[in-house]
Design brief:
Elements lengths: L5 E7 L3 E8 L10 E2 L2 E6 L2 E5 L1 E3 L2 E2 L28 E2 L1 H7 L6 E2 L2 H5 L24 H19 L9 E6 L5 H13 L5 E5 H12 L4 H4 L5 E7 L4 E10 L5 E8 L7 H19 L9 H18 L7 E6 L11 E6 H12 L29 H11 L1 H8 L12 E5 L6 H15 L4 E3 L7 H13 L13 E8 L2 E9 L9 E2 L5 E4 L3 E4 L1 E4 L15 E3 L6 E2 L3 E4 L5 H5 L4 E10 L5 E7 L6 E3 L1 E2 L18 H11 L4 H15 L1
Parallel strand pairs: 1-10, 10-11, 12-17, 17-18
Antiparallel strand pairs: 1-2, 2-3, 2-6, 4-5, 7-8, 7-9, 12-13, 13-14, 15-16, 19-20, 19-24, 20-25, 21-28, 22-28, 23-27, 24-26, 27-31, 28-29, 29-30
Helix pairs in contact: 3-4, 5-13, 7-8
Length: about 650
């Protein structure tokens, strides 16, 4: 295979997908990075090239749209397992705002949803009865496949699958979500990609624009907070800027946040609920909750209204219109206005309040159930930032040179990313917030293009991998532990690979051995943690054993393998046992590789496969169903459908019967 000609960065976003690239030249450091304008349908048979590909799919009804109106410049080839005649991009977003139950959105958020099988056909969520559904993996793959086909149409001699491709993911993505992203890429024909954390990509983009002055600019900024508020997630990272004895700049990622299902989508949803209540009041009707499909349609409009009203030259008001359905299409049409002041109040006071550093998020379960996504209960981004910084006080104090463990360590630099920061009001609010916490001004690092900074930074990372730019260190974003379960207890956690371990560095716990049977499946349950210290302030290091605290650990699906013997020998002795050690390393693509290594022969290795589909591998492990499960399902279905007043009455009766 020929050497790649291009470095390509793909920001596979919740709301938009963006692609950037540069040519691989002898002077790679100076090679210009450009955006790749993506061919997409914007109307029946109308194709344009735009830098943003909205991450939306639309599944037309039979006969709704003529096949000739779906024509792209290339012959579309869906990924394996996908359905035909699907619309991707801007037209899909527009159609979804007009027709209920046929749009797939937020596929990226679904990839990180642990409570569902992300390889099952569940999207569009709350879809129309006759709509064909796909899995979050297939939906994500379809966006990458569209990108690949658009690229190959324009670069037939340098196909995307043959280039050096970087795909970005939230730093908070756990091992499952990262592996599912790799699976989606492979389905799309991109079999060799590298993953990069989005906050790091933003930092790479900043450095690429400031290479000549970065050392001077960061001299007084030893700790930088990267706050990336995307469509579906808020992604937080801490970057330490340090200098060697030769005064050479080094950048290291020293902290990442937990996965927060909180982003621009939540603001759109809050505005949609406001519009929903207004639309009912406008008609003098009793408040009636919209169906999930109708609410999805309304969200498309409030998203546009938000972007308009938070812009620099915003109007005083934007109209929101909901069409009727069926024979009431025109007569049932309702309109209300959303004012600039209202949107500012919800965005600033609701999502970015000037809260105290000691205020933590409300941990109650979210009441938002229409879309099945585990949105955080407290939408105040400010409080989540405070909690993140509190969690990482130890490394923050070290970076800032603070010895007093009672003094709050607040970053002195701030790098913001995400479409919400196109609004100067929101940017100023977050800057004021951190300055108040610190008791002194913070320095905001410039980001002139929040919509495509991640894609540009992914290309800069590609340059760094080839030695043409400074590479950010930091290693593993989280620590990995083996869960040693104990009866009637939470059990112990044995650290297999500590946070910060660099890629390719194998960690083997030589003092721990496991006796396993050849020919039989073996299962290891793993936990992860992004914290710097654990139970009783125990420092994290390879081989350390601590009690499991559910507030500090998050479970991963199990790692599973069958240790095969050597043919005839295994047939003769099915119960042969072997002593092994566990070996772990962070791979080049950013995932965990785990192997069982023979204690007697280092060349004998069995790689553990990661179970990503929540399938039970042993009947003894299956969860026993409660005898009243079906009755509970019926009550839940009744609770979220039908007349609200009757629902409440029925629910109260059922609860009283069980009390």
């Amino acid at each position: 295979m020929a050497s790649p000609r291009f470095l390509v960065g793909i920001d596979l976003g919740t709301t938009n997908t963006v692609v950037a690239y540069c040519e691989i030249t002898d002077n790679l450091e100076q090679s210009e990075v450009s955006l790749f304008d993506i061919d997409q349908l914007i109307g029946p048979g109308e194709v344009v090239r735009k830098p943003l590909l909205p991450s939306f799919r639309y599944h037309p009804a039979v006969g709704q749209i003529s096949p000739s109106d779906l024509t792209l410049p290339w012959e579309n080839e869906p990924v394996s397992g996908d359905i035909s005649n699907v619309i991707v991009g801007e037209w899909a977003r527009e159609l979804g705002a007009k027709v209920e139950g046929r749009q797939v959105s937020s596929a990226k958020s679904w990839l990180s949803h642990q409570a569902v099988d992300r390889s099952s056909d569940i999207l569009p969520w709350a879809g129309a009865q006759d709509v064909d559904k796909v899995s979050p993996v297939i939906a994500s793959a379809s966006y990458l496949n569209h990108i690949r086909q658009a690229w190959n149409y324009r670069h037939p001699s340098n196909k995307l699958e043959d280039q050096d491709v970087v795909v970005t993911v939230p730093a908070s993505f756990d091992e499952t979500a990262r592996k599912l992203t790799l699976e989606a890429a492979e389905l799309a024909g991109l079999k060799k990609i590298v993953l990069l954390e989005e906050p790091q990509a933003v930092c790479y983009d900043w450095y690429a624009r400031h290479q000549q002055t970065a050392a001077d600019e960061l001299k007084e900024l030893p700790l930088i907070l990267v706050c990336d508020v995307g469509g579906g997630t808020t992604d937080l990272s801490l970057i330490e800027a340090s200098f060697s004895s030769q005064n050479e700049l080094a950048l290291d990622r020293i902290g990442v946040g937990e996965h927060l299902m909180l982003g621009g989508d939540n603001l759109d949803l809050a505005l949609a609920h406001l519009a929903e209540s207004r639309l009912s009041q406008n008609k003098g009707e009793q408040s009636k909750k919209l169906t999930a499909a109708s609410l999805t349609k309304l969200i498309q409009q409030t998203r546009k209204a938000k972007e308009n009203l938070l812009s620099a030259n915003a109007p005083e008001e934007v109209k929101i219109t909901m069409l009727g359905s069926g024979s009431k299409l025109l007569g049932g049409t309702k309109s209300i206005g959303l004012s600039k002041q209202e949107v500012h109040q919800i965005a600033l006071d609701g999502f970015f309040p000037l809260s105290d550093f000691s205020e933590v998020p409300d941990k109650r379960r979210s009441a938002v159930v229409e879309f099945g996504l585990p949105y955080v209960a407290d939408p105040a981004v400010s409080k989540h930032v405070a909690e993140f910084l509190t969690t990482h006080q130890q490394v923050s104090r070290a970076a800032l040179g603070i010895e007093d463990d009672k003094q709050n360590a607040i970053p002195v630099g701030l790098l913001l990313n995400g479409g919400v920061f196109n609004s100067e009001l929101v940017t100023e609010r977050v800057t004021t917030l951190l300055s108040d916490w610190r008791g002194a001004p913070v320095t905001v690092l410039d980001n002139p293009h929040p919509d495509w900074s991640v894609a540009l930074g992914a290309v800069a990372f590609g340059k760094a991998r080839r030695g043409a730019q400074l590479k950010i260190g930091g290693g593993a974003a989280r620590s990995y532990f083996l869960h040693l379960q104990e009866k009637n207890k939470m059990g112990k956690a044995l650290c297999l690979l500590a946070k910060g371990t660099e890629e390719g560095h194998e960690i083997r716990l030589s003092g721990r051995r496991f006796s396993l049977t050849l020919g039989e499946p073996v299962r290891f349950n793993l936990l992860t943690s992004t914290h710097d210290t654990l139970t009783n302030n125990t420092a994290i290091q390879n081989g350390v054993m601590v009690d499991v605290d559910p507030d500090l650990f998050a479970p991963l699906p199990p790692y599973i393998t069958t240790l095969e013997g050597e043919g005839a020998e295994l047939q003769a002795n099915q119960k042969e046992r072997v002593e092994v050690q566990l070996a772990c390393q962070l791979t080049e693509v950013g995932t965990l590789k785990m192997e069982c290594v023979s204690a007697e022969d280092d060349s004998k290795r069995w790689e553990l496969e990661f179970e990503v589909r929540n399938k039970q591998t042993d009947d003894s492990e299956q969860v026993k169903l409660h005898p009243k499960l079906n009755e509970c399902k019926e009550l839940i279905a009744r609770l979220y459908s039908g007349n609200k007043k009757k629902r409440g009455k029925q629910r109260d009766q059922n609860l009283s019967q069980r009390s």
